Amino acid sequence: MTVPTIDLNDGTTIPQLGFGTFQVEPDETADTVAAALDVGYRHIDTAQMYGNEAGVGEALAASKLAREDLYVTTKLNNNNHRTPDVRRSLEESLSKLQLDRVDLFLIHWPLPTRYDGDYVGTWKAMLEAREAGLATSVGVSNFEPAHLEAIINATGKAPAVNQIEVHPFFANSKVRAVDNAHGIATEAWSPIAQGEVLGNEVLEEIAERLGKSSAQVTLRWHLQRGDIVFPKSVSPERMKENFELFDFELTEADMGAIDGLDQGATGRMGPDPDTFDTIPD
Ligand code: NDP
Predict the structure, then answer these.
(1) Which of 78, 122, 231, 272 reaches 20 to 30 Å from 217, CA-CA?
(2) Which residues 6+ apart lie within 8 Å of 195 measured at CB?
């Protein structure tokens, strides 16, 4: 099964469906990612913050898959925003991942209340890391419209992607609209709200009618909206379920019914990027 790709604004492409590794235990990551590769996932999303890049690297190396068949994303941790730290920390990530470049490197959080609010400086260092060939594409995560406007106005360079919280309970429409206006692809994190959307009666009704699970219906909703998703699971059965999204389609009415589940900001699972300021020791 071939996963469709999305065109990025820097001329590259990204598989629209991948595998997430948040909260995968470091000592279980190699086996978990190996199982995901067995199912057919080729796009893996990790982060310095998750502490599991080495396990991802181990699984990628053991897979013997060709580098060009893999798409690997990692993210700059919140303690590495200063200019000299960006390249140093990316080099550490590459060493753990056993790669000489990542496909995509993201600023994990904007941290507007830290580092004198200088996420523009961090963005410039990300662009330099790309110029140095350490990342094919660079982007951001959890950037709100004001953060996006600031980095684009300062550098003339829009990020390739903005990875933000999006799921039926929090559609995050305002940020998605600004992403679209700048040609930035939206990556939807916690696409099934860490399991919270499962059991919702609107999703259950659609799923039952289509002979699918409510996780599959939710992931299909994201794909039809054009977003990139990478659900996380430690279970090979659920990995497989989350990968089987291309043999059915949601009608406009079904899409509209799921759109109707949006609760705005109260539907958020994670922190508000304008105030989130946690930095590891
Ligand atoms: P998801 O929305 O992917 O949900 C994962 C949870 O749902 C796990 O508890 C998993 O349990 C369960 N689950 C997965 N598939 C199914 C299924 N088919 N049926 C029932 N339960 C299921 O949450 P994540 O927060 O992990 O988001 C996905 C990825 O997004 C992350 O792994 C990470 O890569 C990225 N992310 C990025 C953030 C950022 O700030 N940039 C923040 C958060 C996430 P089990 O493992 O037992 O199957």
Answers:
(1) 272
(2) none
Q: Which two tokens stand for residue 40?
A: 């057919």
Question: pLDDT per residue over 189-213, tens digit each?
Answer: 999 999 999 999 999 999 999 999 9
Percentages of the chain per state (helix, strand, coil), in multiples of 5: 45, 15, 40
Closest ligand 1 atom to residue 232 Cα is 3
Q: What is the pTM of this model?
A: 0.98
| Residue 201, CA distances (Å) to 27, 171, 191, 251, 257 in order | 37, 18, 17, 17, 11
User: Looking at residue 167, what DSSP letter applies?
Assistant: B
Render pLDDT for 94-109 as a digit per residue (tens, 0 to 9).
Answer: 999 999 999 999 999 9
Structure tokens at 33: 């990612």
Q: Both tokens of residue 31?
A: 């086996």
Residue 133 alpha carbon to ligand 1 centre in Å: 30
Distance from the CA of 73 to the center of ligand 1, in angstroms?
Answer: 16
